[in-house]
Every structure is written in structure tokens, then in C-alpha cells.
Design a protein that fits this description.
Blueprint lengths: L6 H5 L1 H4 L4 E2 L6 E6 L3 H18 L4 E5 L2 E6 L9 H13 L2
Antiparallel strand pairs: 1-2, 2-4, 3-4
Helix pairs in contact: 3-4
């Protein structure tokens, strides 16, 4: 069973993941990205998909032309878990 983040762990999120925010109405992290065009956005999504598959943790996301929005939450935990933090950090490492 995957455990939800503790209040102490949640308190560190702003410093640990400064580009992410809490999703409105959900226990989830969200980040928006903007690219030069659709091809750049799609290429980024492909790289994120490979990270997600490797971690066996898949985001909710949407893409409209040059914009990508990624939402991370762990269904098995009923909210945020260390798996979300790890994937967010991996995404940040490849983000432009």
C-alpha cells in the first residue's frame, strides 16, 4: 500500500517543487508548461511518458497545441504520495 504524504512532507513541497502547485479541489500537484509549438510540446510529453513508464506511475495530463498540463496524484493512496514527488522531480529535470 502506498501511503499519503504526511503534513511534514507536504510542508516541504513548496521548497522541493517550486514550479508545482496544489490542484484546486484535489489532493494533487499540478504544473503547466508552454512550448514553442505543438511538436515541442508533444516531444516533451513523449519524454515524460518514458519517465512515467519507468516509474510505473502515470500522470493525468492534457495538451492543447503548445501547452501541457500535468496533474500528479496517487490513486492507490487517495492523494499525494512520495511517488508523485519523485515523478515531479524527474519531470523538472527534463523540463525546459
Amino acid at each position: 500500500m502506498v501511503e499519503r504524504l504526511s503534513e511534514t512532507q507536504r510542508g516541504a513541497l513548496a521548497e522541493l517543487l517550486p514550479h508545482w502547485r496544489m490542484a484546486e479541489g484535489r489532493d494533487a500537484l499540478v504544473r503547466s508548461f508552454r512550448f514553442a509549438d505543438f511538436s515541442a510540446a508533444w516531444g516533451f510529453m513523449c519524454r515524460v511518458a518514458l519517465l512515467a513508464e519507468k516509474q510505473d506511475h502515470h500522470p493525468e495530463w492534457s495538451n492543447v497545441w503548445n501547452r501541457v498540463e500535468i496533474l500528479l496524484s496517487t490513486h492507490d493512496a487517495g492523494g499525494l504520495s512520495r511517488r508523485d514527488v519523485a515523478l515531479a522531480q524527474a519531470i523538472d529535470a527534463i523540463a525546459p
